[in-house]
Amino acid sequence: MPLNSVNTNAGAMVALQSLNRTTDELSATQKRISTGYRVADARDDGAAYAVAERIRGDMAATNSANQQLGGVKGLLDVTNTALQNVSTTLNKLKEIVVKLADGTITSEQRTQYQAQAKQLTNNVKAFIGDASYNGLNILDDTAATAVKVITSGTGTYYSFSSYSALAQVYNAVSSANTWDQVSASAALTATGAVGTAITNVLTQLNNFGSYSNYIDSQITYNKAILDAQESGLGALIDADMAKESARLQALQIRQQLGTQALGIANQAPQALLSLFRG
């Protein structure tokens, strides 16, 4: 290659190639800084981007499962509140039934106590019927069907049984307003109407409390999984902003120097003119 030529400027070619490389690196660095990602798309690192997309899908699924669990938590909270109210009401009913079982009360007093018993049993029925959340009542299910709850983004389920509280609790005490001394006395035994209703409610309070505890623990676990997934995703694709900031400054200086070097190289052919001056 000729050392002095007006047709071929080797110095300018080298300077231009260097400047182009610097510009490409600067564009990549600016992209990392503007997006915050080392891997913003498949062009940056196809393998890492594919892994990141899979993790994002897993995170979306886990987050969706947690949202559904939040709804189940609300349903169970409503159910437990209703059961607690039923339990409190049955305890009050038991007080009234004790009085109905007393053979020394007058007919007028019995009528008054029976009226109170009627009001309390109506309250029991209302609490059961009102235990609805998002259109679902698992406390008033005559079939006592299994409730399947999705707990994770991988399709894992947790199942628990609903309850027929009207049949198992309310029906046992619904006729309390008609009980005489003998009927009221029988209802107070462990296997009597009031005793059975109270036992059934306490059993379900224990069951639904356990269901609630499981759902709470699963929500907490899913949140921990999401945090771990997010941390791993960040380590895979996030840009080191401090490092990129320092690199940006260095590349900007290199770009300025490369531009100057290209300008100098482009002026080199002008020196050949001096050879032709007389």
TrEMBL record:
Subcellular location: Secreted; Bacterial flagellum
Gene3D superfamilies cross-referenced by the UniProt entry: f41 fragment of flagellin, N-terminal domain (1.20.1330.10)
Domain Flagellin C-terminal residue range list: 192-276
Keywords from the UniProt entry: Bacterial flagellum, Cell projection, Cilium, Flagellum, Secreted
Positions of the Flagellin N-terminal domain: 6-142
Main location, first listed in the record: secreted
Keyword Secreted tagged: yes
PANTHER family per UniProt: FLAGELLIN
Family of the protein in this entry: Belongs to the bacterial flagellin family.
Stated role: Flagellin is the subunit protein which polymerizes to form the filaments of bacterial flagella.
Name of the featured protein: Flagellin
Species of the source: Paracraurococcus lichenis
Native organism taxonomy: Bacteria, Pseudomonadati, Pseudomonadota, Alphaproteobacteria, Acetobacterales
